[in-house]
Amino acid sequence: xxxxxxxxxxxxxxxxxxxxxxxxxxxxxxxxxxxxxxxxxxxxxxxxxxxxxxxxxxxxxxxxxxxxxxxxxxxxxxxxxxxxxxxxxxxxxxxxxxxxxxxxxxxxxxxxxxxxxxxxxxxxxxxxxxxxxxxxxxxxxxxxxxxxxxxxxxxxxxxxxxxxxxxxxxxxxxxxxxxxxxxxxxxxxxxxxxxxxxxxxxxxxxxxxxxxxxxxxxxxxxxxxxxxxxxxxxxxxxxxxxxxxxxxxxxxxxxxxxxxxxxxxxxxxxxxxxxxxxxxxxxxxxxxxxxxxxxxxxxxxxxxxxxxxxxxxxxxxxxxxxxxxxxxxxxxxxx
Amino acid sequence: xxxxxxxxxxxxxxxxxxxxxxxxxxxxxxxxxxxxxxxxxxxxxxxxxxxxxxxxxxxxxxxxxxxxxxxxxxxxxxxxxxxxxxxxxxxxxxxxxxxxxxxxxxxxxxxxxxxxxxxxxxxxxxxxxxxxxxxxxxxxxxxxxxxxxxxxxxxxxxxxxxxxxxxxxxxxx
Lengths: 335, 173
Fold this sequence. Notes:
heterodimer, A: 335 residues, mainly alpha, Cytochrome Bc1 Complex, Chain C, two-stranded antiparallel ribbon, 11 helices, globular, B: 173 residues, alpha+beta, Immunoglobulin-like, five-stranded mixed β-sheet, three-stranded antiparallel β-sheet, 2 helices, 8 strands, 30% strand, flat
């Protein structure tokens, strides 16, 4: 029965095309970090679509609509918690994926564009995390929104979109919601398609002397993905995500969502410019990596000075993050 | 068979026609927002004649029953609807329920924080005006059947994940 069904699906959906060769090493979890990131993005899309049915992206209704989602929408509390933990999870998996790909020097010719697409996706995920944290429109969300305005003012014409003076026809919150739910996911989808296509065409940067088939890799990946989802589901039950009180404008007293705390730490040192300089330096460096680490040799771990710079940046981010976590809450944007 | 289909078509047509001819009940006010503890001038039109309707304020966290209102021979009413001082500020739907429980009309209204005088009668903790990084204490939505559904979803996801991992060789052909 199952065999018949499988054969029927294979024939009609051309699933045999998934039986191409991949390195045997791809059966290991460290080669699935990118796939798990994609899986979590899928979870974020599904849970986000559900939440969007209840969310009111206006300053007057946003906080109340989140309260409604938590307290009255069917399974809304759990689905929102899954969304929150998946967002944190995706930051961890994409960071680990980026670090492992960097260590293996998989960005070298001919995979530069694959790397750049990955870096752009990491940047978009970072922006999705930041925009998402503003939507709850409690004190923390309001302060995140105020940071967009402050960043927009600092960067002049580049940041005009993020200032409230951009247009009187709609609120900044509505525009951030629009970015979070349409433009950023659309760009992310296009980059994922490009990333996957390039991986399929250029192959995995690993030893092909021992190979297996992609279908088994994908099935194991789905297995890990569903286990991860179950784990997130339990976490969402045990530690449901809350919401703060309605925002009081003109006050800066909260700390941001944990993936952004290293930027917060940098703001403690540099003021509002920290939120522009920190991410810009990190992503500029990541973008330049294939151009800085030239040459034929692609032995993992032998980056030379580029590796030391990367290590210094990673340690700086870790240090700033710890400072953000344990340091006193400070004012950065003079609200 | 054919006659039955014709009857059904006539009934459907009559239903659509009645819906088109019979106007929907309307709730309207000169104000789109009201301070908690104050009155909201409210007009109802196109309701059923001489019936009693229940007015309820539906909010994100709580619903507030605001009492009953009787329509006149023309299906209208005009009242100053008292909004309790303990209503939490926020966006609400004001709903008029017919005696059979159907929603007859709805209207969006935002309730703003009570002034000190209006708040004398009652006060909600969440109406405190000081900024805080603390989280609200909220009654969660998941209860009863919901927990069962969650257990099922989590169990199925975990079981499916394990089955996929056990049933697949680690990539070999």
